[in-house]
């Protein structure tokens, strides 16, 4: 999934002397404090780590409580979604004005009604909330659906994602995977319109129209000349 990346980092973990006999456990404890928080140094939310101690020698820091620093190298799995990236999350709540999902089990995502394309209509039946497609009734979004959406913004402090369902390649992931050709055609048409292909076509029609008008004027002038000779 987009937004996930691996990196290697050289770290120094500072431990209290009382942890010297169980340094490995103390190191893992320190690293676990990084989990599911955004770290500016690494440029993402730390989801997992795999540390390897580089040396058995530790540097002792002077002071009243002389901590010792252990150097290690760690592989980190980071999560850092960027605008326009496509993510997937499980839908946990629907309202007439929004869709709520959870990404990777920890990050909340909200798609507001302004970011839901007109194709989808909200409906409540027998206490169940659902969004269904006006063009294909089998394309539905309800609680438990794996939702594929694009990122608008990511709040690093509260790990909150603002998403969008405006693009045709977003919606119920299962339906999209089964109907690749259908939404691909719709997405291609929308892209052409956005890039101005339609305007170019209109321009060509205008040019053709002007050419035709000039030809008509030439025909009229030719007829007048012929009448003058007769």
TrEMBL record:
Q: Where in the cell is it found?
A: Nucleus
Q: Does the keyword Ribonucleoprotein apply?
A: no
Q: Which UniProt keywords apply?
A: DNA-directed RNA polymerase, Nucleus, Transcription
Residue ranges, annotated region (Disordered): 187-230
Task: Specify residue ranges for compositional bias: Basic and acidic residues.
Answer: 194-207
A Gene Ontology term for the protein's cellular component:
RNA polymerase I complex
Q: What are the Basic residues biased-composition ranges? A: 221-230
Q: Which InterPro entries match?
A: RNA_pol_Rpb7-like_N_sf (IPR036898), Rpb7-like (IPR045113)
Biological process per Gene Ontology, one example term: DNA-templated transcription initiation
Its primary localisation, in coarse terms, equals nucleus
Known function: DNA-dependent RNA polymerase which catalyzes the transcription of DNA into RNA using the four ribonucleoside triphosphates as substrates.
Q: What is this protein called?
A: DNA-directed RNA polymerase subunit
- Identify the species of origin: Perilla frutescens var. hirtella (Perilla citriodora)
The uppermost taxa in this organism's lineage are: Eukaryota, Viridiplantae, Streptophyta, Embryophyta, Tracheophyta
């Amino acid at each position: 999934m987009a937004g996930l990346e691996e990196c290697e980092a050289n770290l120094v973990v500072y431990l209290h002397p009382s942890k010297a006999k169980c340094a490995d456990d103390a190191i893992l404890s320190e690293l676990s404090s990084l989990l599911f928080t955004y770290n500016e140094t690494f440029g993402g939310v730390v989801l997992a780590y795999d540390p390897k101690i580089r040396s058995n020698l530790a540097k002792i820091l002077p002071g009243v409580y002389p901590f010792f620093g252990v150097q290690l190298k760690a592989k980190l799995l980071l999560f850092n979604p960027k605008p326009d990236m496509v993510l997937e999350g499980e839908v946990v709540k629907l309202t007439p004005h929004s869709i709520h999902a959870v990404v990777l089990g920890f990050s909340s995502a909200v798609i507001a009604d302004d970011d839901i394309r007109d194709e989808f209509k909200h409906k409540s039946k027998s206490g169940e909330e659902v969004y269904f497609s006006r063009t294909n009734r089998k394309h539905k979004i309800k609680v438990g659906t794996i939702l594929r959406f694009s990122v608008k913004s990511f709040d690093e402090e509260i790990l909150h994602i603002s998403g969008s369902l405006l693009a045709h390649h977003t919606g119920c992931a299962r339906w999209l995977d089964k109907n690749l050709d259908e939404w691909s055609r719709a997405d291609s048409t929308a892209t052409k319109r956005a890039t101005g292909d339609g305007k170019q076509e209109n321009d060509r029609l205008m040019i053709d129209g002007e050419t035709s008008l000039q030809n008509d004027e030439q025909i009229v002038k030719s007829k007048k000349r012929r009448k003058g000779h007769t």
